[in-house]
Structure formats: C-alpha cells, structure tokens
DNA sequence: TAGGCCATCTGGTCCT
DNA sequence: AGGACCAGATGGCCTA
C-alpha cells in the first residue's frame, strides 16, 4: 500500500507528539507534502503544544504500532486498560483481582463462566457508585439475584466486546489514513480519526474529479482525437485513468472506424 | 490541577 | 427472550 506518512523530519530523533485538534483535520489544512505522500499542515509549528518529549509514556515506548491485539494493547496508556485498573463500574474492585487478564478474546474477566459472578460481588468495592434505580443495589432474593447478576455480567461482556471491535475498526481506519504512524507520535483520538478520515475521503474525491477534468481538457486540446499515451508511459499505476482511456477508446470505436494510430501505446491494461 | 481521552458499567430501546 | 445499539455516568491515566 502506498505510504501516506506525514513526518516532522526537522525534529531529528526527538520524539514528537503532534497536537490533535479540530484544526488538524480541517480540509483546508491538507497539503501534498511530497510526491508520494499526502499530509496536513499543522501551522507554522507542527509541534505546538505537543513537545512533551519527557513524557514518561513516550519514553517508555508506550505507543508502539497499534494492532488489533487486545493483549498487547493492554499496556498502552489510555487504551485497553486492564479492567483491574480502570473505572470500577458496578462490580470490579482493583484489590479483588490482582491478576486479571486483559481482554484477549480467549479469556474474559467479566465472563460469569470464569470465576462466577458471586466472587466479584463478594468483593465489591465499598466505593462502587450507587446507581439510582439499580436493582443490584437492592439485593433481592439470592437465587434470582445470582441469575440476574449472571445476565448482567453477560451483557457487560458483550458490550465490552462490542466496544473492542469498534476500537479495532478505528485502529484499522487509522492505519489507512495519512498521519504519522510513528511510535513517537501519539495515536489519533477517536474523534480526530473520524474527522480526518472524512476529510481524506473528500480530498480523494476532489483529486479524482480534478484528474477527470484534466483528462477531459487534454482530450479537448487534442482536437477531438483520442488521447495518445506516450510510449513507455505505464498506466498500471493509474487504473482510473487507464479505465477512463479504455472507455474513451471504446466510444471512439463505436462512433467510427478504428484508428490504429490513436491506440494508446503505453497502456497495458 | 484542570481538561482531554478513554474503558467500563448500566439501563433503555429497538430488532430478530 | 436475547442480542445489538446507544447514551449517560464514573473513574483512571496523561498532558499542559
């Protein structure tokens, strides 16, 4: 796949944390940074507000490449945080499960089938928030309570899985939109990822339209004659243009006798 | 320390 | 009934 990296090369080996703001993903900020790469212009100083090279997380290499591997990502700050260390929610207390595995697809620390819900309930944190109207705070009869908690834990596990899938999809989206995929650069936030992807799509659509107009213009300047691809020019890297020329060639063939001299010579499509 | 971002829990709603 | 989806609430981590 084509690389669309925007790197701040002036920083040398100095890790850079690009500020991710709404301005970053505005269409007007887009620039073609090189012949082979698209990126965005972050203003005069790309690292404004984001030169925290002393960040412990960064120095510890806590922002590696992001793959759809839940187990690895549990080490990344702000992402895939192990259940034992994040919001306690209704059932989880950090001191209860010191060796809770992170979400890995094979084990689910919130799965009632693994350990049972009663264990979690028995060590509920006294600081767990009391949800108004939460039936689990009212502690009904034991049997029904246990079954209800099991259902609740199943629902929680599904929801957690769903959110992980959503995050995996966001990771895949980050992988194909142009921004600096570097361990020293902070990962795009969710909202920034969506906005950047939207603007990237718009930019690609504009580029495509511009190319179509250019081809039409070139065709016009050729006096109505089909565009002749210069010898040695390979259209393999331009499938859209090749297809367009093929269509033009087909239209020419339909409207009149074939003209061998006008056949694209460089196209191998 | 405030604000941003995130993961998780939870109850409600809709759909199959 | 069960699952997917959604939004609100909560608390942890990180950075300026």
Automatic annotation (TrEMBL):
GO molecular function, one term: DNA-binding transcription factor activity, RNA polymerase II-specific
Domain of life, source organism: Eukaryota
Keywords: Nucleus, Transcription, Transcription regulation
Compositionally biased region (Polar residues): 42-68, 97-140
Subcellular compartments: Nucleus
Domain BHLH span(s) in chain numbering: 150-204
One Pfam family named in its UniProt record: HLH
Gene Ontology BP term (one): sensory organ development
Keyword Translocase: no
CC terms in the record's Gene Ontology section: nucleus
Region of interest called Disordered, as start-end residue ranges on this chain: 1-21, 35-83, 97-148, 247-269
PANTHER family linked to this entry: BASIC HELIX-LOOP-HELIX PROTEIN NEUROGENIN-RELATED, GH17679P
Entry protein name: BHLH domain-containing protein
Organism: Henosepilachna vigintioctopunctata
